[in-house]
Structure formats: structure tokens, C-alpha cells
Amino acid sequence: MKSLWNDADAARCDSELALRAYSSRLLGNDPSLVLHGGGNTSIKLEDRGTRVLYVKGTGSDLATVGESAFTPLRLDGVHEVLARENLNNAGMMQALDTCLARRPAPRPSIETLLHAGLPFRCVEHTHADAALAAMNVEDIDTVHAEVYGDRAPLVAYHHSGHALARACMDVFQARRTRNTIGLILAFHGVVAFGDDVRSSYENMIELVTRAEDYLKARGAWDIAPAAPTAIAGASALETIRGEINAVAGAPLALHIVSDAPCLAFAQRADLADISQQGPATPQHAVYTKRVPMIGHDAQTLHHYTARYRDYLDAHLGKSASALIDAAPRIVLDPASGVCAFGATARDAQIAAQMYQHDIAIITRASAHGRYRSAPPAAIAQAEFEYGGFAAKLNK
To answer: Which CATH class is domain 7-217?
Structure first.
């Protein structure tokens, strides 16, 4: 991965915050790093004698982010929130609201504490596809040691928020060396940092490049999908669409991608294994759900929804589970490819795009190891806290 830093463009930024927004857009415009509001960046500045953390606010897109999209928080106050024990994310967000340096301001990112705790002026976090393809394997510790070592210590998976930030601080303090420029978050992506905007941004580029180089060295980067077989019957999906809508409780939009990679993936002999491990990162499940449905007949849908309801009940409890419908959002069909459903047409398109990235990640990971996803309980938690599908459907 090449740095896109341009000195002339950077020189036009009239403040450090503007420069931080500029480098954020460089990351956000690359879908292999950031998808649909994912990822976040920050900078710590002095403001009239007060140390202020500016972190990209919730809901803004890194691809278009400007200075006003960064939430200003008193850094000392955020450190006090980070120091609390056993704080849930609802309590964390309430506490962060009291740390705002001024109002109005965007809602703070759920990753705010992670940015605050690292002792560097600039921090960035992405869900880099290359890093997920390299790390999402059964033997993650061995692969991590070869790719990153102390350059970016490995942090075990934790849900975004207070727990993840505390885990990152523990790993950073225990394993950092003079060589450390970032952290690898299992099933979540990459964190990079530095004491100025450019070095922090280019540290991210280096860490992603290390994953790319590892995959290339193992023949797991340029993977040409097998030529898909022409199969009749794509229109049969329409026969099950009404039943999927009934399970969802409302009509769902449908978006189909039938390009060669999607068709080839849907026709893989090992599809029943690799597609049922889970998404590349739990955040994708917000749009795609944890696993796709394979096939499109009524019996398959019945079995899928029963299994999905059991999974939600087991990891969330019946009362929370009842707030999430068990209808599939991705259907893999050998004749159609990737069939994505969503509460709106845009949601369906996003689900399809995210699953296309999952296909690339799963394919590359499977070419150098045994693909693995985050634990089902972690994915269920992400679905519940970030989903919002029930609210959209109820509207």
C-alpha cells in the first residue's frame, strides 16, 4: 500500500486539525481500509491551556470528514473515564458527554477511550482488509509474530468501548518497545500512532503493507477465482423473498451481485464450512448478520431462522434476542451469487459491499491458513448494540 500524502495538499491546511482531517480523508477514501462510517482518527491539541482530544465523531464518514466532524473532549476528563473499573458502554458514553470541551459537538466515538489512552498526539484505527486476511486464521499468534512482532503487538478481541480501550492499554504497556508504531486488534483491524499527523498516517500504511507482503509471499494475495459455472434458475430467489420478508416483519430491499468472484464463492465446494465461520469483523454483521443462508428454498429458510434464533437466544437472552429478527441478510446462491437484503435499498447495497469484502478476506485467509472469525457471542453483541434494523423496520 502506497502513502497518498501530498505535500502541496497538506500545505493548504491552515491548522493541525485541518491536517488531521486531510489525512483522515486519505484513509477514508480507500474501501480496503474503511467501509461506511467505520474507522476513526484523532489528534491531541492545546486549547487555551487545556489539553483537548479531537476524535472523529460518531456517524461521520472518514472519506468526507472535515474539522467540524471531530468531537472536542477535555483529555484529563477522558483519562478519568478510562481509569474507571467495570464501566459498561452506556455509562461510558454518559461520562464522555460530561467531558465535552464545548457544545454543540458530534456524539463521541465509541473508540474515544482507545485514542485517549495511547500516549501519542495522533492515532488512527482502520478495519484494513489485508490485516484481517492475514490475521483471521486459526494460527493467529504464529502469523502475528511473523508479520508484526513488537512493531504492532496483538490485542485479543474485545467489544469496542471501555473494555477494548483497557485491553489496548494493558498490551501497550506490557509489550511496547522503541520499535512499536501500532497495535493489531484481533478480528477488528489496525491501530497506528505517532507524534505528528504524517508519521501516524504513514505508520498505518506500513502496517497494512506488512500484511499485504505476507499474503503475497504465500500466494494468497492475487487470487483468481475459479471460473463460475453457468447455472439456471436465478429467478427462483423470488419464490422465497416473500417468506424472508415475513420473518423480517417488513418488506426488505434486495440487491444482487452476480460478478465472477461472487458466483465463484457461492459455488465453492467448501462453502458450507468457510461461509459459516462468521464475518471478517463483527462490525460487518450489523449489515450482513453473522452467517449467510446457503440456497433459497423454504426448508433452508426454516432451518436458517431456527438456528439463528437459537444463536441469538444463547448469547443475548430471549428478551434482547426478541428485538432482532432472524431473517438472513445475505443469501448465497450458485446461480445468483450474493443476494443481499436490507431494511432500505441503501442497506441492501451496503450489505452486499461488505460481504464482497468478506469474500476477498475469507478467500485470502483460506489460501494461507484456516479462516476463523470472532466468537459468536462477540458478534451477537455487535448485532445488538449497533444494529438498528428493528428500529428501521418498525418505522
So the answer is: alpha beta
pTM passes above 0.85:
yes
Same topology, domains 7-217 and 234-394? Answer is yes
User: Which of 3.40.225, 1.10.3470, 3.40.50, 3.30.450 is the CATH number of 234-394?
Assistant: 3.40.225
- Cβ pair 329, 289 in contact under 8 A: yes
Q: DSSP per residue over 133-192, as a string?
A: HHHSBTTHHHHHHHHTGGGS-EE----TTHHHHHHHHHHHHHH--TT--EEEETTTEEEE
Which residue ranges make up each domain of the chain? 7-217, 234-394
Mean pLDDT across 324-331: 96
| pLDDT tens-digit map of 149-180 | 999 999 999 999 999 999 999 999 999 999 99
- Burial bucket for residue 394 (CB in 10 Å: 0-12, 13-18, 19+): exposed
Question: What sign for the dihedral angle of Cα 326, 331, 332, 334?
Answer: positive
SS3 386: helix
Residue 72 to residue 110: CA distance in whole angstroms: 14
